[in-house]
Amino acid sequence: MRRLTALIWKEWLQIVRDPSSILIAVVEPLILLFLFGYGVSFDLKDSPICVVSEQPSAPAAGLAASFHASRFFKSYTDGTTGRCIAELVAGRINGVVVIPSDFADRLASGQRAPVQILVDGSDPNTAGLMENYLAGTFRTWMAIDADMRARSAAPRISVVSRTWYNPAKESRRFLLPGLVAIIMTLIGTMLTSLVVSREWERGTMEAMMATPLTLPELVLGKLIPYYLLGMAAMTATTVITIVQFGVPFDGSVWVLAGVTSIFLLTTLGQGLVISTLARNQFVATQAALFSAFLPGFLLSGLVYEIDSMPWPIRLATYAVPARYYVPSLQTLFLAGDVPAVLWPNSLAMLVIATVFFTVVVRKTPRRLDG
Amino acid sequence: MEPLIRIDGLSKRFDGQPQPAIDGLSAAFEAGRINGLVGPDGAGKTTLIRLMAGLLAPTAGRIQVAGLDPVAEAQALRAAVAYMPQRFGLYEDLTVQENLNLHADIRGVIGAERRRRFDDLLAFTDLARFTRRLAGRLSGGMKQKLGLACALVKVPKLLLLDEPSVGVDPISRRELWRMAAELVGRGIAVIWSTAYLDEAERCDEVLLLNAGRALYAGPPALLTTELAGRSFLVNGLGGARRAVLEQALDHPAVIDGIVQGASLRLVVARQAEPPTIAELQAPEGAKLVPTGPRFEDAFIARLGHRAHPHSPYAERQAICAAGTVTVSATGLTKRFGDFTAAEDIGFTIHGGEIFGLLGPNGAGKSTTFKMLCGLLKPTRGSASVSGIDLLGAAGQARSRLGYMAQKFSLYGDLSVRQNLEFFAGIYGLGRQRSVVIGRMVEAFGLTPYLNADAGGLPLGFKQRLALACATMHDPAVLFLDEPTSGVDPLTRREFWSHINALVGRGVTVVVTTHFMDEAEYCDRIGLIYRGRIIAEGPPDKLKADAGVNSLEEAFISLVEGQEVAQ
After folding, report:
1. B428: closest CA among B485, B473, B373?
2. DSSP assignment of B173-186, as one string?
3. Which residues in chain B are closer than 8 Å to A283, comparing Cβ atoms?
4. What residue spans of B345-488 are helical by DSSP H?
5. Is the dihedral of CA B379, B385, B386, B389 positive or negative?
6. Residue B406 to chain A, least CA–CA distance (Å)
7. Residue range A269-299, pLDDT digits in tens
8. Tally of structural domains, chain A
9. Quick one: DSSP state of residue B68?
10. What is the pTM of this model?
11. CB-CB neighbours of B168 under 10 Å
12. Spatial separation of the C-alpha atoms in residues B65 and B82, rounded to whole Å
């Protein structure tokens, strides 16, 4: 026990005194948090569009006004079709709505009255969003218009949509909780593999191996301090997310701590696996970046929807621990303790952690030659 | 008495290596002695120590340490054995005291015993004043003493030291020996590996290793006596000693020769007549006198070193036909904050001269050296090469400099050819490039390694490549920063044969070193202590001034004299 506490104390002193630990454990998480909190958003707001009425009419003016009133768009109505398309090609606007000259007539005679929607498809994400929001605005206007004209005849049917868990539909509310997973990955995998490989590089590992320290002591001596550091970072991140960015937290703190602990085990396990294979800091950093950090970002469902990925990649996401942790976090923050989400995800993470630690115990060298 | 360590037919082969690192070795080491593990680089010294520490498993054969199998009974062994690796294994972010605490906790040294032990060790290593300093901020000698203290928090049965004196100045080295002697007095066995042969001579017993096999085991003096009557000094050579050395090494009777101050030291083959003064083409008044053999003579004789490759530099015409170059320093001062690393340093080095900068760790040697070759801007004073100020016209002056850094600044991941091409590019050799590279490759025998990574070369070839890279542009001044630190005598001899050839062509050489045998090659030495030059002159003059016989003693007495004066 004394040996273990001595190792943990040593590790703590090193974390505090080493600028690279502070950078990874404190500075980088803060940068990510503020970047995602303020900078990154998947919401559409004041997106510039151009609305062209080929022939002025009352319904066309009404439709244009409803685009104008939407908080999603900032609409311009002073161009011709050709000019607007030129603007779209130049990338100065994101979409064009063309209201054809027969729009009012078709509407009056009860026929289908289509409008043309053009979006810039070069960025498929934005294009999809634009298309949905533009079409949505159009449909809403149609419904209101039809209702107004048929006011006396048809029975009143109204569609009221309510969005659960994230009523304001702010992307920040699901991005920031998910970001905790990335920060845990930084500390668990990146920092751990870095410090262990540094011990190999500087020859301190050799000195430690020549002492009566046992293998479990050496492994726990790394695991415990970085587990504690990870939990501290999770707490700090959660508090900033709630207080600074106003994201609600509906789950219980203990469940959050439990699920986070399981996830930390997977990242720490991965960090230790990397450092048993790579005995130099450069290789360890690269390995951590490509096997943990980037998959955590790209394959966890945090940024890209997993269901819309091609199947081989979708299959690969099952091996990414963050894939299970990100939805758990989003559920805990926005929906509360939902066992149907948390249990399967936690079990999956436990399986991954077990695999990693089996490798660690089997492969951690007891001697310099294996 | 049963020996503490018994080794029987031990072999260790690493994956992917054609030759075993340890090859059927049998040996025994006893307690209460300093056992030297001596041999050239790559002889298997580190591997053998790691096998004793249970850090490597043998491929074949048996090893027993204190009655234990180091691999199967690792836990029991590690309680009895202390090991200091080559790089000391210290945590540089931790203070002296914190490093000691860690090791005491690991070895379960607690309570009153711990306090007593710490007091002991801090007094023993003279580190009591620095307990709150970070280990990373200690000088090389102090780091090494701390490493030793950490290894000794619990009194072991066996202390394993892997090249403890590499990069450590003579004063720290002497203290380390004093400490080892004290430990041995308490019945501890010490294994001390070294490539320095003056150290081997002080051990109680030595095991001479070469290519993983034992060449000799026993007291060093016994090996030395084999050489009785075969060592000679050639005196009265004046400035001709390097040229005479070339002649001597070509003589069939001579198996070894080095410069030793103003003299040459020669070793002749068994039952061979020493060369005559005429055969050596030595100047009038030169004298050949017999001298007592040293361990190094015996070492070289045992290794059967006879090859004397002519340095490629010898054949090429003198580059400094237009007149040799003078390096001078006036009032060089460098301050870092309120710390003065070098103060008012001045000297002049003439063309075709070897000038050595010596001094304890942290005395300001490297700072002075870096100011001389224009890598560091002096706070005051100036350094010039042939009158060109290194600061004012750095580019112009620097094109005439060659610089070989400590630990060879080669690109380990590039092949030999790529390294040469890179340096040729740096020096702007242009169209001559392929001609020059071809000449270097041929001259240094690098052809078989052309496509091998520089990082994996044998040490001797690494050094040849580094020298080839540093001299490709025919520099008039060559700066060498601890060029043979940790290098064995054979590689060092080869290296100096090249340097001697360069000097013979009029190149000026400035060298820093901790190694006194290397300092003997210098025409003049500047001894730096606490940022100032405290003595300057030829090696023999420094010895005479201090009234001692060896340069190491002269070094120590001059530095200590200064300390008393202050």
Report:
1. B473
2. HHHHHHHHHHHHHT
3. none
4. 365-372, 394-398, 416-426, 433-443, 459-471
5. negative
6. 18
7. 999 999 888 888 899 999 999 999 999 988 9
8. 2
9. B
10. 0.79
11. 24
12. 12
